[in-house]
Design brief:
The protein is of the alpha+beta class and 711 residues long. It contains 18 helices and 26 strands. The longest helix has 24 residues. The relative contact order is 0.16.
Length: 711
């Protein structure tokens, strides 16, 4: 364009498809003032709200209604840095209703797991994880950067500390401090000396050997000498023998044995597979199933069935097809996630949100983007990413949308409503703003094809670049031309698996302590399926608008088994059938299984006290008996875009990176891409969104994406 005597460069038009964490991260980066207005961003979103799998809404009495249980872990540095920047940017306006980010996220350091015992039935184990220095999102110092040697060294220190605390002082003896040996030759000589003693039988000797291993891991840059591998195996054998003799006899200490047994298997496997020096790092064992790899490296069947491993699979929803008999989790990413979770957190192990994720995360993001001039086109369902009809298929030529609704006055849709003085997403569209009012259509259902018109955008005229930030489950439906043309995309959609999930929420008139739950409000996993993970969310209730507030709110979730045959696109009733399945399953869970959690929630005859369920609907008279469950909230996450992304063995190599330049005006974003942390979580989605922004703009620098180069 030319204006007077000066040449003015036209802004680059970017279409971001999808309003989940990955798409919003890319939009935040590309609209940042550091680019000087170089990019003009338009977000296209089906339905009326942002959030993707993290969306939430406000229902009757302003209650928070989620897709499931959402928590942020203390190592989510990229995600927290993004949110801290959003809250700071809004605070700088002087009129932000959102407050400080530390008010929005609540630190928690207690996690519960369940195990079955012959004597007591279900037994709960509670882990208290001490606060660590710093806060998630703080700048990383060189000594804090993610690295496998750093995590393994911490694991060794944990083992050594457990031994010293329990037995080394009682047995006496000495051990060589880990920093006494700085010469690799002396270190190997010391290892040979220890090996010459035979099987380690005292905690003192084991502590000395563990300290020596820690020094070796910190020093050796070359592949480990056979003596070090032999020492690792001897330490593992000796420690297991010591545990079986001194700890395993007491069932109340079984979790100590199981933790140490699993850590030992990880240490032996790390040495045996040369992971510390392998350029691929943990990706070198991505072809192995997690339990199989641990078993290969000496883990006992008892520890492989422990609540720690069950909880790892449950929290990752790692059950192919939703089948509890098909647990599948790639070993490399499983270890990466576990090591970062337990040894890489800052502040607290995990952080719960003060309100719904839509309120705490996506409402502030929306406000920041809107203030920056980002345009939002709600009620735009993508139906096709078009390739050129002629010539090489090296770019995207068109984007086609079903327009689901339009506003009555032709202005932009206003999506947020005020609850307790804060802007929030409603659980339903504001039909008063839309032509035709309430049509009764489910505008977020893949099977409800409601459309008032079709809109097609064309390259260069309407957009220059595309950030395709829909979920991988939707790719076969919206990217049919690319999947048909590109074998890599076809392999990706076939091998990067997803799983449906189910969730329900309760609002109870009595707190959990009165109902017989003895612990503080924590996250509990490894419980009986189908709802193996749950959390007391009492802190959310004050953010809602009850006339008579309930005592607490509790969230449950788990995988949802797929049917033998997936439904046709024309089967409009499929989502409701699955939703009714979840309702019946949840009501049955309360009628029987929940007595293991809340014994006082049952009357003298052993029946669940349905009047404990607070009614937000205001019915007169309120429903009674099992019918009262209809006043609660439940959902089946079966939409292709709602399904949780898995990392099954061998699937990572089929993921495509946002940095891939096969299509010169297209990048992808989502927790299903190859992003450095291949797991279905917020941090992976944010990392992918940062990579997508880098692909288009060169920023942020790859070195500034924490964990992208994690081994």
């Amino acid at each position: 364009m030319t204006q007077g005597s000066q040449s003015v460069q036209r802004p680059i038009e970017v279409a971001v498809i999808g309003g989940g964490c990955a798409g919003m991260t890319a939009a935040l980066e590309l609209s940042h003032p550091k680019h000087g207005g170089r990019f003009t961003v338009t977000v296209y979103q089906e339905g009326w709200r942002l959030g993707g799998k993290g969306a939430s809404g406000r229902g009757p009495s302003g209650r928070v209604e989620e897709h499931g249980l959402h928590v942020w872990l203390g190592f989510y540095d990229n995600a927290f840095r993004m949110m801290r920047a959003c809250y700071d940017e809004l605070a700088a306006t002087g009129s932000s209703p959102y407050g400080d980010w530390r008010e929005a996220f609540v630190p928690q350091s207690v996690m519960g797991l369940f195990a079955t015992t012959e004597q007591q039935g279900w037994q709960k184990w509670v882990g208290h994880f001490p606060p660590r220095s710093g806060l998630p999102g703080d700048p990383q110092t060189p000594g804090e950067m993610h690295s496998l040697p750093r995590y393994i060294a911490k694991a060794l220190r944990l083992l050594r500390a457990l031994l010293i605390e329990t037995d080394v002082h009682r047995h006496g003896g000495t051990h060589r401090p880990a920093d006494d040996l700085r010469d690799p030759n002396k270190l190997l000589a010391a290892a040979q000396t220890l090996l010459g003693r035979g099987v380690f039988t005292t905690a003192a000797a084991l502590a000395e050997a563990i300290g020596l291993l820690g020094t070796a891991i910190g020093m050796l840059a070359a592949p480990f000498d056979a003596a070090i591998l032999q020492l690792a195996g001897k330490v593992a054998a000796g420690l297991r023998l010591w545990l079986e003799t001194n700890v395993l006899a007491e069932d109340r200490h079984r979790h100590v044995w199981e933790i140490i047994d699993l850590v030992l298997a990880i240490l032996v496997g790390t040495v045996r597979f040369g992971l510390l020096t392998n350029p691929q790092g943990l990706d070198a064992i991505e072809e192995y199933e997690c339990r199989d790899w641990l078993r290969l490296n000496g883990a006992s069947e008892r520890s492989l069935k422990s609540p720690f491993i069950n909880g790892l699979y449950d929290l990752a929803l790692a059950y192919e097809d939703g089948d509890r008999d098909k647990p599948r989790l790639a070993a490399g990413q499983a270890l990466r996630g576990a090591l970062r979770m337990f040894f890489g957190y800052r502040g607290a192990l995990y952080w719960r949100m003060r309100s719904g994720m839509g309120d705490v995360v996506f409402a502030p993001i929306y406000e920041v983007l809107r203030r920056r001039g980002v345009r939002f086109r709600f009620f735009h369902r993508l139906t096709n990413v078009g390739l050129p009809g002629k010539g090489p298929a090296d770019h995207v030529a068109s984007l086609t949308f079903d327009v689901q609704a339009e506003t009555t006055d032709g202005r932009d849709y206003v999506p947020l409503r005020d609850v307790q003085g804060r802007p929030c997403w409603p659980s339903r569209p504001d039909w008063a703003q839309l032509t035709g009012g309430d049509t009764g259509h489910d505008l977020e259902s893949h099977w409800d094809r409601h459309c008032i018109r079709t809109e097609t955008l064309h390259v260069t005229r309407d957009f220059d670049f595309v950030v395709l930030a829909v979920s991988v489950g939707a790719i076969p439906h919206v990217g049919r031309e690319i999947v048909a043309h590109d074998p890599r995309w076809r392999r990706m959609t076939e091998n990067v698996k997803t799983v449906a999930s189910q969730a329900f929420q309760l609002w109870l008139t009595e707190d959990l302590a009165r109902l017989g739950w003895p612990s503080p409000p924590d996250i509990v996993s490894a419980f009986v399926k189908p709802f193996d993970t749950w959390c007391d969310m009492a802190h959310v209730v004050p953010e809602e608008e009850w006339a008579t507030p309930p005592a607490t709110s509790v969230y449950f979730c788990g995988v949802l088994p797929d049917p033998a045959e997936l439904p046709a696109d024309s089967d409009a009733q499929y989502p409701e059938r699955r939703r009714l399945e979840v309702r019946d399953r949840a009501a049955g869970f309360l009628a029987e299984t929940a007595r293991h959690l809340w014994p006082n929630a049952y009357d003298a005859g052993g029946k669940f006290r349905w009047d404990l369920l607070a009614d937000a609907t205001g019915q007169t008279p309120p429903p009674s008996g099992p019918e009262r469950f209809a006043t609660q909230y439940w959902r089946a996450n079966v939409n292709p875009s709602d399904r949780y992304v898995l990392n099954v063995p061998g699937s990572s190599r089929h993921r495509i990176s946002p940095l891939d330049n096969t299509y010169d005006n297209l990048t992808i974003a989502g927790d299903w891409t190859s992003c450095g942390f291949n797991e279905g979580c917020v941090e992976a989605a944010v990392m992918s969104g940062l990579l997508a922004a880098h692909a288009l703009s060169g920023l942020p620098a790859l070195k500034d994406i924490d964990g992208y180069d994690h081994p």
